[in-house]
Amino acid sequence: MALDSHAKNAPEHVAIIMDGNGRWAQSRGKPRLFGHHAGARRVREVVEACPDLGVKYLTIFAFSTENWKRTQVEVAGLMSLFRRYITKEARALKDEGVRVRFIGDRVRLDHKLQTLMDELEQLTEHNDRVHLTIALNYGGRDEVARATKRLAQDVAAGKVDPETVDGETLARYLDTHVLPDPDLVIRTSGEARISNFLLWQSAYAEYEFIDTMWPDFSAEVFGNVIAGYCKRDRRYGGVRA
Ligand code: IPE
Ligand code: IPE
Ligand code: MG
User: Would the annotation count 195 as a binding residue?
Assistant: First the structure.
């Protein structure tokens, strides 16, 4: 079954919109933050499943540029969870060969969290078994706008000839510039929207919207989604060979 999908057509890069933590908690009569903690505990299992599934890059959406609209209690709880998560998981991530990167605009995050993010990136920078990218204060439009601003600055400084600017040029200014485009984007919790995630990079991604709430997303569910992906026919605007 799922593990046989370690085939040549396994997705190299899987991106996940980890949605449904709040509803998962509320359906159990618990506060939303209880769901966020349960969701964070799922991440390790999913990362560890990647090598057997043939997945080299995993990108997870942890906090969007729109999530600041939530209550102060929820936002503060999430920020505290991110600090705790990084502190607690750093050693295991390093030992398991996981290279961690963060994408998103760090400027609005508190300094302690920014420092922890920088340290985790440095601690794991020589790892190559799985590349885990965590999107934190990330929004696809914000990313393209920030990239465009830096590109415009380089044009104004005479470093880039505007006549040469194409899609590849812009992609080099994105937070994801070192990552391949995602092959598969999974969203949990039954919502069928992308909520500003990897807008540019997902131009040809396959999408899978599943009803499972993120805290229930197990390695087995992950394997089944990957197995389904492996049966798909990607044409990129061409015709089947
Ligand atoms: C996803 O779960 C986690 C974050 C957005 C931080 P939600 O918190 O969106 O959970 P629901 O969608 O309200 O159930
Ligand atoms: C998307 O989920 C963001 C993350 C999973 C971090 P949301 O729950 O914020 O998305 P909407 O509001 O339902 O579109
Ligand atoms: Mg949600």
Answer: yes
Instruction: Show the CA angle centred on residue 232, arms to residues 229 and 235, nearest 5°.
Output: 125
CA 82 – CA 37 distance, rounded (Å): 10
Please give the number of the atom of ligand 1 that sits closest to the Cα of 17.
1
Alpha-carbon span 182 to 142, nearest angstrom: 19
Could you give the residue numbers annotated as active site?
19, 67
Instruction: Tell me if 67 CB under 6 Å of ligand 1.
Output: yes
Domains of the chain: 4-139+180-229 (3.40.1180.10)
Determine whether the shortest distance from the Cβ of 183 to ligand 1 is under 6 A: no
Helix/strand/coil (H/E/C) assignment for every residue in 100-166: EEEECCHHHCCHHHHHHHHHHHHHCCCCCCEEEEEEEEECHHHHHHHHHHHHHHHHHCCCCCHHHCC
Structure tokens at 65: 């540029």
Phi/psi at 107 (5° precision):
-55, -35
Q: Atom of ligand 1 at shortest distance to CA of 36? A: 3
Q: Is 196 annotated among the ligand-binding residues? A: no
Low-confidence ranges of the chain (pLDDT < 70): 1-7
In terms of residues, how long is the chain? 241
Query: What pLDDT was estimated at residue 1?
Result: 42
* pLDDT at res. 240: 80
Residue 163 is labelled as binding a ligand: no
Q: What is the pLDDT of residue 105?
A: 98
